[in-house]
Each structure stands twice: as structure tokens, then as C-alpha cells.
Amino acid sequence: MTYCIGIKTNEGLVLASDSRTNAGLDNYSTHKKMLSYCVGDRCIVILTSGNLSTSQFVYKTIREDLEATNPTTSLNTCKNFDEIAHYIGMLSWQRSNTDGVSVNTNLGSNFILGGQIKGQETEMMMIYPVGNYIRTSEIKPFLQLGETKYGKPILDRLIRNELSIGDAARCALVSFDSTMKSDLTVGPPIDLITYKADSYEISQEDQLQFKTPFFADLSKKWSDGLLDLFGSLPKFDWKKKK
After folding, report:
1. C-alpha–C-alpha distance, residues 225 and 219, integer Å
2. Contact 51, 109 (CB under 8 A)
3. pLDDT by residue (tens digit) across 197-228?
4. For residues 97 and 113, what is the distance between their CA atoms, to the nearest angstrom?
5. In the structure, how many helices (H) and strands (E) does the chain have?
6. What is the pLDDT of residues 139-163, one digit of tens each?
């Protein structure tokens, strides 16, 4: 399984993905699920979940198109993020359709696309296996892929458009911490990128393990804080009488 998060705030973007592709008590493997491209007038980050073969094909084709002399389409030739989303969606559809018409859902992949092209707004989009896509909204300025349920409550409670990208990044890591404590199919290393609007370059890029000092400290303080908060919650009347 996998877990990916894309957050859009007024200040910029946060994108994070785990690296686990197969999980069990004594058998697991890892693979990077993030692709970034920041050159000239654009900065683009892509996250993926779903069939690993399809995801690898899409990423490999994207890289080949960027290196080609006269590609039909590439991340460089797209004029806006709608064109980029369509390009990625068509690559995914081509790989996962087996009868020339419909997508084989077992071979499908999903993608989160974020970034900015100069002169345009920052973008955060989700691309589905059939090639269609959606954007974040004012009400819900974040997107998730994969094992979403364990890490969603913190995002629902805290993510707002006015949140700083630093706070959004910490919130994303808490969401990962909650997910990894409840689901073995999600695991480190966590790839984390922050992008400040109108910079056209990655502001910060990290790869975090359980024992990475910052992540270990964040995880411990979050757990300790929850225990302290739980102890301060209102007591039942029947509990007070004891």
C-alpha cells in the first residue's frame, strides 16, 4: 500500500509520500514514489500510488520525454497544469488499458500533481487512472492517496488556506506518524518537499526515517501531548463521585 499527501496553502505547497511497496512482518520493500522537476519557469512535483508497474512506466516516460530532442509532449512543453495533468493521465491510461478501450483497475495508478508555472497560480491536483483529474478546493485544500483514513482527522482539523507551509509540513508528518502507527503497509523513508509560491524552486526537501531526530522528536511530542490532553478531558459525573 502507500500514503501520499498534497497540501495547498496561501504561502505555498507541501507534498509528502512514503516508500513502502510491499509489507509484512518479515518481508517488505521500498520504492521512491515522488518525482520532482524544477527548471526555468516551472516547478513540478508528482506523487503516485497504485500499480507500481504503471507508476514506473509513467515516471520513466516522463524522464525520457524530457531528454528527447523534439518530444510531442513533455513537462517542458505543457503550457499550464491542465495540460500536465492530461499528459500524465494519458500515460497512465495507455499503460493500464488492456483492451484498447477501458482501464484495468488492477493496473491503474493515481497521482497527485503540484507546483507552479511562472505567471500562473500554484496548483494541486489529483489524477485518476482513467485520466480525469480534480483540484483542491477552498474548503478542502489537501489531497490524499492510498491508506488515507488514519491520517485524515488531523488534516481535517488543522489544514486551512492561511496555514504557513512550515505548519502544514508538520501537520503532514503528524498525519504520517498516525498512519504508520496503525498500518504496516505504510512506512519510511518519508519524502517531503515544501514549495514557496512564486519561487519556482523547491524550498526544502527531506527524506525522513523513524530515527531521524526531527521526526522522532515530533512523534514523541505528539504522543505525549495526546496523553496529557486526554488526561485533561472532562470527566463523567459518575466518575467524579468515586
Report:
1. 10
2. yes
3. 999 999 999 999 999 999 999 999 999 999 99
4. 21
5. 6, 12
6. 999 999 999 999 999 999 999 999 9
CB 49 within 8 A of CB 4: yes
Under 8 Å CB-to-CB from 214, ≥6 apart: which residues? 208
What are the distances in angstroms from CA 139 to CA 99, 143, 144, 174?
Answer: 39, 12, 15, 21
- State the cell numbers at 201: 524552486
Q: What is the dihedral of CA 213, 219, 222, 228, to 10 degrees?
A: -90
Quote the CA–CA distance of 156 and 133 in Å, as a whole number: 21
Q: Give me 77's grid cell.
A: 512543453
* Amino acid, res. 228: D
**Predicted TM-score of the model (pTM):** 0.91
Percentage, residues of the chain above pLDDT 70: 91
Taking Cα atoms as reference points, which of 176, 184, 221, 239 lies closest to residue 15?
176
Cell 482501464, residue? Answer: 103
Strand partners, 77: none
By C-alpha distance, which of 90, 124, 111, 135 is closest to 48?
Answer: 111
pLDDT at 187 over 90: no
Torsion from C-alpha of 158, 162, 167, 170, nearest 10 degrees: 50
